[in-house]
Design goal:
Elements: E1 2-3, E2 6-7, H1 15-31, E3 37-43, H2 46-49, H3 53-56, H4 64-73, E4 80-81, H5 85-90, H6 106-120, E5 131-138, H7 141-145, H8 150-153, E6 157-163, E7 168-173, E8 179-182, E9 207-212, E10 220-225, H9 233-236, E11 242-247, H10 255-261, E12 266-272, H11 279-288
Parallel strand pairs: 3-4, 3-12, 10-11, 10-12
Antiparallel strand pairs: 1-2, 5-6, 7-8, 7-9, 9-11
Helix pairs in contact: 1-4, 1-11
């Protein structure tokens, strides 16, 4: 749906798929009991957070707040659910979602990261400590999905990214199994207008590992994500010596075994709410956690 110069994506709750997602998480937490702490973060999309209520109330779209509450309320007590819906709603007047794309911005992801840090009891990096990078001219998925709607064409997004302090190195493995050293935040100034969200962690790759050489405490986490995780993950490099990233859509292996063999302490499942109603995506996650 287009309102003014912004696109919004409809959402319809599927209890059957939500239950499958819940079961996958509870099973994973059981397998990792005594080895790692499991966290779950379900990210609402812009329709529920920033669309004016005068438009929202007349739409045939499910309540994302209710859907997220259903998921978090059904999880095993051993899983820590990161509450971000109200946090994002409190910042709804800020640039926390793109207009021409379905993703959140690095600012929206930052507020969620602060919620995670508060829940875990660690000190979040401040944006003022980070190096700010800005890339204008982004025209994302809503733009392409609406056949280049003129309302979106006239007001492209700007992708802002934040590089946390520290001696940080990143390496990713692509879908062909090739490994590359890559910057945490890429200079996408001259990239295609549709590709600028790929500034974050090199885009969507099966496996990525980020090392902060300034930390020597052995701290490590694993983020299991789709593309919403990309804007969130860079901040974690300020808090963990090692951040492992698995994009479950492209990675093949066993997550509990991976966690144990790498002595990972924290496991964060990060999905946008639409992924939790997608039987194919949840089924892929499930296949990796058996």
């Amino acid at each position: 749906m287009i309102v003014g110069d912004s696109g919004y994506e409809y959402y319809n709750f599927s209890r059957e798929v939500a239950d499958q997602y819940i079961g996958m998480l509870n099973h994973t937490a059981q397998k990792l009991e005594g080895s790692a702490q499991v966290y779950d973060m379900v990210v609402p999309t812009s329709m529920d957070i920033i669309l004016p209520e005068s438009f929202r109330q007349n739409l045939n779209t499910s309540s994302q707040k209710d859907a997220i509450a259903y998921i978090s309320g059904s999880l095993s007590p051993s899983i820590q659910s990161v509450p971000i819906y109200d946090t994002l709603k409190a910042h709804a007047d800020e640039y926390i979602y793109f207009r021409t794309d379905h993703h959140w911005t690095a600012l929206g992801a930052y507020y969620a990261y602060r919620s995670f840090a508060e829940l875990k009891g660690i000190s979040p990096v401040e944006l003022s400590q980070c190096e700010r990078k800005e890339f204008s001219g982004f025209l994302g998925a809503f733009y392409s999905d609406t056949n280049k709607n003129p309302a979106l064409t006239q007001n492209p997004d700007t992708v802002v990214a934040y590089v946390p302090p520290g001696t940080i190195k990143m390496q990713y493995t692509d879908r062909e199994g090739n490994t590359f050293d890559w910057p945490l935040i890429s200079d996408v100034s001259n990239w295609a207008a549709s590709s600028k969200y790929s500034t974050f962690i090199g885009g969507d790759n099966p496996y990525t590992v980020i090392q902060n050489a300034d930390l020597t405490d052995g701290s490590s986490c694993l983020v299991i994500k789709e593309s919403f995780g990309n804007a969130f993950i860079p901040y974690l490099a300020a808090n963990y010596q090692t951040v492992h990233v698995i994009d479950y859509r492209y990675w093949n292996g066993n997550i509990p075994e991976f966690v144990k063999s790498n002595n990972i302490q924290d496991v964060l499942f990060l999905n946008n709410v639409s992924a939790t109603r997608n039987a194919s995506l949840v089924g892929k996650m499930e296949s990796l956690t058996k």
